Amino acid sequence: MAAGVAAWLPFARAAAIGWMPVASAPMPPPPHDKRRSQEGFIILNVSGTKFQTWRNTLERYPDTLLGSTERDFFYHEETNEYFFDRDPDIFRHILNFYRTGKLHYPRHECISAYDEELAFFGIIPEIIGDCCYEEYKDRRRENTERIQDDEDNENGKEMTPPDMTMRQSMWRAFENPHTSTMALVFYYVTGFFIAVSVMANVVETVPCGTSFNRVKDVSCGERYALAFFCLDTACVMIFTVEYLLRLIAAPSRYKFVKSVMSIIDVVAIMPYYIGLVMTDNEDVSGAFVTLRVFRVFRIFKFSRHSAGLRILGYTLKSCASELGFLLFSLTMAIIIFATVMFYAEKGSNSSKFTSIPAAFWYTIVTMTTLGYGDMVPKTIVGKIFGSICSLSGVLVIALPVPVIVSNFSRIYHQSQRAEKRRAQKKTRLSRIRAAKSGGANAYLQYKRNGLLADAEEEASKEAGKALVCKVNPTFETQHHHLLHCLEKTTNHEFVDEQTYETSCMEVSMVKPSTSRSSSVSSSPHGLTSCCSRRNKRKSFNVPNSNMTSGRRGSVQELSTIQIRERPLTNSRSSLNAKFQETMPLNSEQPPYITAAIISMPTPPVTTPEGGDFQSNIVRVSAL
Amino acid sequence: MNRIVEMKAKNRDQSLSDSRDLDGSYDQLTDSIEDDFELSTVCHRPEGLEKLQEQTKFTKKELQVLYRGFKNECPSGVVNEDTFKIIYSQFFPQGDSSTYAHFLFEAFDTNKNGSVSFEDFVIGLSIILRGTINDRLNWAFNLYDLNKDGCITKEEMLDIMKSIYDMMGKYTYPCMQEDAPREHVENFFQKMDRNNDGVVTIDEFIESCQKDENIMQSMQLFDNVI
User: To the nearest whole angstrom, how far is the Cα of A330 from the nearest Cα of chain B?
Assistant: First the structure.
């Protein structure tokens, strides 16, 4: 909970006055504040620099060194102060955390020194404020990487875990060719064959001199058809084998098949197989020729070999909105100018501007300052608008392009940082959530375990904090008492998600059945056993009772809650009484128990569960 | 300082008006930034310690502790409703306490100016924590009486009850039924409404509360909150 909010607890407890007159059950007794928190200064002497603060300030965070009784180990009797042999500069930030509730990271400090201080004083780094968190994480990562690199260079790169399966080692070889010579060989071979295949496709179409009985040139592809076919077959063999091996080795085949690279692979080798399958039919050979175009996609296979290509593809993808805007504005301008030119040139005869779509070509060529000259305006109006078109073309193209270029460089750097920031955020938020839910669940823990020692263990385990929460539960006690009052007011209890689910299921399942076994069987979770009990009782009609149904429900709840809560009130009081006064407190509790017994006269007689009821009482008092 | 703010605002408005004319829409961002700026320059100082001591029943030390906590969370010296709701919601992580916090805010804000100053805060607390049982009951009645007309109707009570049940959240045992607040309100009216006229007046309220031992006992819980 935030620092300042702890000071508002008296207000929250006072606000509970609104619940009192409407409460259907009496309130639990207030926690006994045996230890009034003393107002006063605490002097902290950190290597000679004296810091002073209120005692309450430090006690806002009872799970840290300064907020718990652990600081007593550093108490110096003679000077009546707490002495710490640590860095005073960093301590300043730690003390500010107590004062303001926000932890900052000073940029000039060394990251490992800062980490050590945080660990010493029991503060988790995840609560560093948003203003400083990114810097902190970046520095930390750099530091660990540097340390890791140093270690790597020392050990050499022989880091093959011996127990990787064949499949995993194959995948690793594919993804990181530098890990083994075999992988490197494979990498270069495939690269070579990609290049050869692309070259073959290109050279195929070059005219290769005339053959004897033809007039025009034939392309090399037709002249040396067999050679090219063999080359193509060899390349496709290699590519197919590579694709199949990757498919086998992929840890997630489905993800691999969906990935862009695998699609490129498939598209690159498909034309060959389709060509094999198709017959030499004249009709379909036209379509077959078109398919050969797809062979050029083999060039994209190079992106596995080149990181730069991959990054370019990614940045294009992430720049899609800017490119889209450019396209859209160009389209707008093209349509406008094409329309204008068409109507301007409509008058002149033998005009090439036969329709607006025909004028599109002229507009594009003019706006991009290409100016082929195959379409030119002849009328004066047309020439005027043509010049306006070319001038505006320069503007329309030249303005967004630098924006896109700067976007590229920004996105390039940002994409490198965005990934790591996203990963940080997830883990960080989950850890903070875990620490926060420690607070909400602490209340449920108190109810469930009912013993101070257990609650301590659970709280420390759950929050995963470095130090165990010592006995400083004044704030917690009062807060729990507040939540308890709310439960009493509404006659409902706080539970966690799992219990809620199970209880909802039990309500639907247990109603018709009257099996006792579930209730009698001892469950570690007192809550669920009583839950099943309650549902069964609700399903029974108490014939002799003359109370209204609503009232009955509440009285029934009252009685069961009383019985169930007995161990809890015991625990809470024992929490405050420190195990010494449990006996006298027992004598205080009877009013609740007797009320319960009095208000439920009939069930022990009419219901077969009466025995259980009695045994329940017996079980409780044995506690 | 204020003058400078005004001048800047004018220039910005002038430059904005051109684009506003163009398409009729306006930039809400700059408007809200102006609003926030205004709010943050308001700084309220409470009356002196002695005066507060006279008005409330707190000791000097208690007032000091209260003010330090108050100032820490609200450096400007006043609490507006949103901050109030945020602070209150920290104590009830499982449910939604904003409606109840709204009613509380209305009860604390005695001069109805939309913000609770330290004096309002401490006077309210003084009644609850240090007042007589009658004072406390009066304060509670004032909380329930949403339109401050001197009597609590069933609708008002239902609103209050719903807001209390909202604070419990979803994960409760037993599962929260839809009509639980309504049932509760019926019980309440049965207990409190003596002449069965559908409203609970202050006298009926105090009389019924004084007869109910549970309520009397729970009122004494507030004696040693601070």
Answer: 22
pTM of the entire predicted model: 0.45
pLDDT of residue B188: 85
* Domains B49-131 and B134-225 are alike in CATH topology: yes
CATH class of B134-225: mainly alpha
**Residues in chain A with pLDDT values less than 70:** 1-6, 33-39, 146, 148-163, 209-215, 279-288, 307-308, 407, 411-412, 414-423, 439, 446, 448-473, 507-623
Which chain A residue's Cα is nearest to B212? A21
In whole angstroms, give the CA distance from residue B208 to residue A148: 74
Note the pLDDT of residue A27: 80
* Residue of B68, B184, B221 with shortest CB distance to A24: B184
Tell me which of 3.40.50.300, 1.10.238.10, 3.50.50.60, 3.40.50.720 is the CATH number of domain B49-131: 1.10.238.10
Tens-digit pLDDT profile for residues A512-544: 444 444 433 333 343 333 444 444 444 334 344
User: According to the 3-state scheme, what is the secondary structure of B15-80?
Assistant: HHHHHHHHHCCCCHHHHHHHHHHHHHHCCCCCCCHHHHHHHCCCCHHHHHHHHHHHHHHCCCCEEE
- List chain B domain ranges: 49-131, 134-225
Hey, which residues does A51 pair with through a beta bridge?
Answer: A44
Min CA distance, B29 vs chain A (Å)? 22
Using the Cβ of A432 and the Cβ atoms of chain B, whether some distance falls under 8 Å is answered with no
Using DSSP's 3-state secondary structure scheme, residue B169 falls into: coil
Q: How far is A609 from chain B (nearest CA, A)?
A: 21
What's the pLDDT tens digit per position in B44-69?
A: 777 788 888 888 888 888 888 888 88
Q: Taking CB atoms and an 8 Å limit, are A494 and B103 in contact across chains? A: no
DSSP string, A176-191: -GGG-HHHHHHHHHHH
